[in-house]
Specification:
The two termini are 25 Å apart. The chain is α/β, with parallel strands linked by helices and 168 residues long. β4, α5 and β5 form a beta-alpha-beta unit. It has a 5-stranded parallel beta sheet with strand order 3-2-1-4-5. It has a domain of 103 residues: Vaccinia Virus protein VP39 (Rossmann fold), CATH 3.40.50.
Length: 168
């Protein structure tokens, strides 16, 4: 890649419309290997039995809105300030409240409130998940690993994370 083409990509990225977790403008510009399982399918399989759902790190609420109809009690969290009004605009008409402005270890929701908690890539404290889940509840998460986008991070000069037991 030349410096000119790299600069053109940066200029295009800075001009692109970005809201919530909609990366549509990048379609066709990246490759990813398919996973042997589907986070969406796992969530959709668990959803019919749920009466109270928490979506952690909802972004702009795109994924959660796509799951409608939602359980009678559905709450989303989002802590990135630009996403909060986007999520509220999309989710509040569906009866979903959006909670923001808290630390991972102190989510301002009552304990034992949810029988399903979903979390695609948001950080979390396991003790807080345990506090929020009802007995027998389910926590589904899809986290990016330490080797996620290693090549891109190398190109950008980012330091590699130190992960015990993981050779990068």
């Amino acid at each position: 890649m030349t410096a000119t083409s790299f600069a053109a990509l940066i200029t295009a990225a800075e001009a692109a419309f970005f809201e919530g977790w909609d990366f549509g403008w990048l379609r066709g510009r990246w490759n990813e290997a398919p996973l042997p399982w589907s986070y969406t399918a796992l969530v959709e399989r668990a959803l019919p039995a749920a009466t109270a759902l928490l979506d952690m790190g909802t972004g702009g609420g795109e994924f959660l809105a796509g799951l409608a109809p939602l359980p009678p009690t559905t709450v989303a969290t989002e802590n990135w300030p630009p996403n909060v009004p986007v999520a509220r605009r999309r989710l509040e008409p569906l009866g979903v409240s959006v909670v923001s402005g808290f630390a991972d270890h102190a989510i301002p929701l009552a304990g034992a409130s949810f029988d399903l908690i979903i979390n695609r890539h948001e950080s979390y404290e396991l003790r807080e998940i345990a506090r929020l889940l009802r007995p027998g509840g389910l926590f589904l998460t899809q986290q990016a690993g330490a080797q996620d986008v290693v090549e891109l991070n190398d190109l950008l000069g980012a330091t590699r994370p130190e992960v015990p037991g993981c050779a990068l």
